[in-house]
Design a protein that fits this description.
By secondary structure, this protein is an all-alpha fold. It contains eight helices and no strands.
Length: 175
C-alpha cells in the first residue's frame, strides 16, 4: 500500500506545480529553468567545501589515527570493547554524515543488527547532527566566516546528544 501511495507522490507534485502555474498565469518552464540555474550556481558554491570536507574525513579514516586514539584511551580508561567501536563514530559524527553512516554500517555488519553495540551506535547517530559539515557547508555558501560561537553551541549539543544516547542505551539495552 505504501509503495502505491509513494508512486503517486511525484506525479502528484508535478500536476500540482503545473496547476499552480496555470492558475497564477506564470510561465512554468521559464521558472523551472531559472530554478535550475540557481541550483547549479549553488552547487558550484558548495562543491569546493564538500570536496575539502570529504577529503579530510577520508584522510583521517584511512590513516588509522582515530582507531589509534581510541586504543590509547582504552588503555588509560578501562572501556569495554563496545565502547572502542563507538569511539570513531563519536569523532566522525559531527564531521561527516557519510563517514558516520559507514562506521555504523561496519559496526552492525560485524556485530549483528540486533547487537547492543549496533543499537548504541544507531542511537548515537540519531541523537546528534553533522555539526561541522552543516556549519562549513551552509555558512560557507552564504559567506559567513565568523562561526565559532555556532560551532561551540553545536559541539556542546553533540556532546549532550551523545551522552544521552549512551546513557539511554545503557539503561535500555544494558550494555
Amino acid at each position: 500500500m505504501f509503495n502505491y501511495i509513494m508512486s503517486l507522490v511525484v506525479p502528484g507534485l508535478v500536476i500540482l506545480a503545473v496547476s499552480a502555474c496555470l492558475v497564477a498565469k506564470k510561465n512554468g518552464f521559464e521558472l523551472f529553468t531559472k530554478g535550475s540555474k540557481e541550483g547549479i550556481s549553488l552547487f558550484l558554491e558548495i562543491f569546493p567545501t564538500m570536496i575539502a570536507m570529504l577529503t579530510a574525513v577520508a584522510t583521517l579514516r584511512a590513516s588509522g589515527l582515530i582507531e589509534d586514539f581510541a586504543l590509547l584511551l582504552s588503555r588509560v580508561f578501562s572501556f569495554k570493547k563496545e565502547w572502542l567501536e563507538i569511539f570513531p563514530l563519536a569523532i566522525f559524527r559531527p564531521i561527516s554524515g557519510t563517514a558516520s553512516t559507514g562506521i555504523v554500517s561496519d559496526i552492525c555488519r560485524v556485530n549483528g543488527a540486533d547487537s547492543n553495540v549496533c543499537r548504541m551506535a544507531s542511537s548515537l547517530v540519531g541523537c546528534t547532527d553533522t555539526t561541522v559539515y552543516v556549519l562549513s557547508l551552509y555558512f560557507g555558501s552564504i559567506g559567513i566566516t565568523k562561526w565559532r560561537h555556532a560551532l561551540k553551541a553545536g559541539i556542546v549539543a553533540d556532546i549532550i546528544g551523545m551522552s544521552l544516547a549512551i546513557t539511554l542505551s545503557l539503561m535500555i539495552f544494558g550494555l
